[in-house]
Amino acid sequence: MKQSFIAVNTPQEGPSFAPAAYSELTAQILEIKGLESGHVGVFGFQGSGELVRANLVSRLPNAQIGAINFQSMALYERRYNGPEQTDYGHLFDSVIVAVPPQLNRITLRFIARQFFGAPLLLVSAASTPIGDCTVITYQDEALVRPKVGLVFPCAGCGRFNPQFMTLMQIFDIHYELAFREPYFDPRMIRSIRSNISDDSVFDPSGNTVQQSSIDKYYSDVLRYLPGLHKYAFIHHPVTVEALCGDDSMDFVVLIRDPRDVLNSMYHRLTRDTSEKEFTLIKEGTKEDGLNLLIDGFDYVRKDYFLKWPSIQKMARDFLAADRFPNAHTVRFEDVRYEPESTYQGLLSALKLDPRPFTLLTEEFMARAIHAGSFEAQTGGARREGEDALECYRFSDGRLTGARKGEKGDWKNHFPDSVRERIKSLVGEDLIALGYETDLNW
Questions:
Q1: pTM over 0.90
Q2: Residue 401 shares a structural domain with residue 252
Q3: Which are the contacts of 98, defined by CB distance < 8 A and separation ≥ 6?
Q4: Within a domain: residue 242?
Q5: For 173-228, what is each residue's pLDDT tens digit?
Q6: What's the domain range around 399?
Q7: Which residues share a beta bridge with 328?
Q8: Residue 79: exposed, middle, or buried by beta-carbon count in 10 A (0-12, 13-18, 19+)?
Q9: Do 110 and 46 share a structural domain?
Q10: CA 335, CA 312: separation in Å to the nearest integer?
């Protein structure tokens, strides 16, 4: 459903607004629209609706005016309120939103989901002058569709996730940890280990763990991810086609130059002191280790598994995202070097319009971008571009993969033989992804 609303400048009075002045402004708009004798609902929070209604009754004597008040934010979160369960099944001609500005968006979302018809919404918005009120289409569906981030390992999750989380919160879209990652899920591990007797298995051919099992795991849990302004991240190599075919939700796919992904993973496995098992990569030559990552491998132990895909599958999945209208690609390189325009473009693609009542200021955007910087990730211990000898460890023991994060760092580490092999396997894919213009690199 698409709602139309008019943004009205709110006379501020402390943290809320002046009911009498706001009532006068909304009455003027109703008269201009010829709705001064219709059914008017005043939607308020903790008593504000009654205050505005009391002022409107004398101002619009021919209107039928009712007030609806919420006393608790918890009521906004109720799901599946049908007409038989709610007091809001009225055919209003217009609804006046008389809540503090910070509740405007979640209130509009609630009205759009719970009210019959498509009433004209008169919304407080301090950024819009009363003399220039404009009817704007409210993209209700964009706000309630679940958002799922597909964040490939070593593609830069530490730089992308914090900014995205910060931006979603300003739209009242909140993180939902709807599932446990399958590589720690005992049921998943038991199904993989059913025919394995050793304590740990390293399979260079990558045939121990079935990719279809991982894809099905995530497809199943996403079906139960609640809508109503929720989002989740999948930080695991999944098949894009297996998930993005569900057009009931939006997917944000973080991609990166596959060569930089390999370089990042190689350094993580060889430098990170927590990755003790990968002796095949730690103790072998750099060329052997990189070739193992190029081919892909499976690693399984009794409480964990890792499926690292081949570089062909990685590139193929990155390319696949462009085929789905509900999948929106974000490049690590753009997040790294042009974050503001990148996130503005993503919000536009997701139809999350910051107008007219979300305070998405330049200062807020700057804070969101800083949330994904090396300085923020490492508590000020690291600066951009420094090459750490191992992954940074927080004081509570958690690790972050913030090593260097620079575009094209693979050039400093790949032997010629590895470059040529990658070129033969995914050279054309790198051109299609926009990371090269030809095969002369």
A1: no
A2: yes
A3: 17, 19, 22, 42, 43, 44, 45, 48, 49, 51, 52, 124
A4: yes
A5: 888 765 667 888 888 888 888 878 777 888 888 888 999 999 999 998 888 776 66
A6: 144-433
A7: 252
A8: exposed
A9: yes
A10: 24
